Every structure is written in structure tokens, then in C-alpha cells.
Amino acid sequence: MCLAIPMKINALNDDRMATVDVLGVTREVSLDLTPQAQVGDYVLVHAGFAIEVVDEQYAQETLDLIKQFPELAGEDGLM
Question: What pLDDT does 78 receive?
């Protein structure tokens, strides 16, 4: 089973990479699978790749569910 985390795109970088944020944790992810993604969009992130663009309501509902399971969080926040 895999878990994809909804994250918001804060910046587009070189080579189809983006800086994304979830609950204050930032990461660099590849947009190779979601070339249509733009700054401000929410994307589902798995294994360093944005795999789908989702709407803000879906992203918030998913984050609310994830917050109910603290064991899903690593040492520095979400895995």
C-alpha cells in the first residue's frame, strides 16, 4: 500500500521540479507526471513525484484525516 500526501506548490524550479509544502514541511518534488501543475495547485506526492493535481477541498479533507493518525508522521512531520 502506498500513501500519497497532498502538498501545495509554492515555487516552480528548473527541470520540472517544484518546492511543495505540507503543514510547514517543505520538499522538492518532480512534476514529470503532472506537467500541468502550477504554483498554488495542490498535488498528491508519492516517492518524490507529484502524481496528480487535486482541488483544495480534497487536499484539506485528506490532511484532516492524516492528522488523526500521528503514527503516519515521521520525526520532522509528514513522511
Answer: 52
